[in-house]
Amino acid sequence: MLKAMKIPAHSRLMAVLALFVAGLPALADTHFQARRMTRDDVPAGKGQCDIRLQVDGQVDVAVRGDLVSIKTISGRDARDDGSECNVPMPTREFQGFNFEVIDKRGDIRLAAEPSRRNDFSAVVAIRDSAGGEGRYHFRLSWMIPGNDFGRNPGSDRPPARRDDEFERPRTGAGGFSWNNTVSFKGDGRGSAILSGSGELRLGQVTIDIDRSGKVVASFRVDRGRPVNLTGQVLAQEDGRWKVDAMTEDRRLRGPMYLAVDNRGQVTSVRLDATDGRDRMQLNWDRK
Predict the structure, then answer these.
(1) Which of 24, 81, 103, 121 has the fewest CB atoms inside 10 Å of its own CB, making it the most exposed?
(2) Which residues form the signal peptide (predicted)?
(3) Closest to 229 (Cα-Cα) out of 221, 218, 214, 244
């Protein structure tokens, strides 16, 4: 008569653990590339990624360029729900980074801004404690560096250019579009001197730039109507704009140079406009 084969106790324990682990959901990292944004409502000079996810549990989301990496901490793996970028986020120093929550069901926060320490990745922590999947939509935005204008969204290499050149954004036809603008404001002081008409003291400035590169600038004055200028962006780089500007009556025309800091505040404006006979010189600086 055959004797029953005895299985060592530790082997039985390992077998039970293997069956238990096999029944657990796998916790794996998820990686995908955000698709190219087809909307045209993002202002010129602004980069934007809208990250949309379905989350069940707790995850950490890292966005580098237009690549999204999701580490599952608990629950099921998160999945993409239509993430998109108009351009990849720069993988080097840049200005104007902003994080905004558009839609959420649980807790979501920015854990780390892009920096050299994290290889220029934005890290977002999400905790969804309700049952099932919850929709999360957060937006990353930044000022596009000048050498990223016209770049292939799938490329990490900037186009070759001379160090003294600005990159030139594409311009469109038609009038100014107030629905697709980026606005900058500044508190400061300056003057506009028009030959034969004396000097105007300038105060607060507001500058609007639409997606096609059209510009409207308005300066408050101590007395009377604001000084208004319009124009077209000729070049932009790292918070500096060169504009082909003209006065409100379209009589005087010349180059205008704008500078904006990484918080979107105007720091300086310079204009030298003429019609060949009369001339306006405008100089404005932040307080």
Answers:
(1) 24
(2) 1-28
(3) 218
CA separation for the pair 280, 248 (Å, rounded): 12
Please say whether the beta carbons of 189 and 202 come within 8 A.
Answer: yes
Distance CA 85, CA 82 (A): 10
- The strand pairing partners of 44, in sequence order, are none
For residue 267, what are its two tokens? 């720091």
Residue 8 has pLDDT above 70, yes or no: no
pTM above 0.85, yes or no: no
The pLDDT value recorded for residue 70 is 94
Do 140 and 32 sit in the same domain of this protein? Answer: yes
With CA atoms as reference, report the closest residue to 184 among 214, 161, 205: 205
Beta strands in the chain, from DSSP E residues, in sequence order: 30-33, 35-36, 46-64, 67-80, 84-85, 95-103, 107-112, 122-128, 134-143, 181-186, 188-194, 198-210, 214-221, 227-237, 240-247, 253-260, 266-274, 279-286
CA distance 171 to 174: 10
Backbone torsions φ then ψ of 57, nearest 5 degrees: 120, -140
Q: Are 137 and 186 part of one and the same domain?
A: no
Give the phi and the psi of residue 22 in degrees, each rounded to 5. -60, -25
Tokens linked to 67: 């690549």
Q: How many CB atoms lie within 10 A of CB 161?
A: 12
Residue at 20 is within a domain: no
Residue numbers of the domain that contains 126: 27-145
CATH code for the domain of 282: 2.40.128
Nearest to 56 by CA among 138, 127, 137: 127
Cα distances (Å, whole numbers) of residue 260 to 74, 81, 183, 246: 43, 35, 11, 20
* 234-275 pLDDT, tens digit each: 888 878 889 999 998 888 999 999 999 888 899 999 999 998
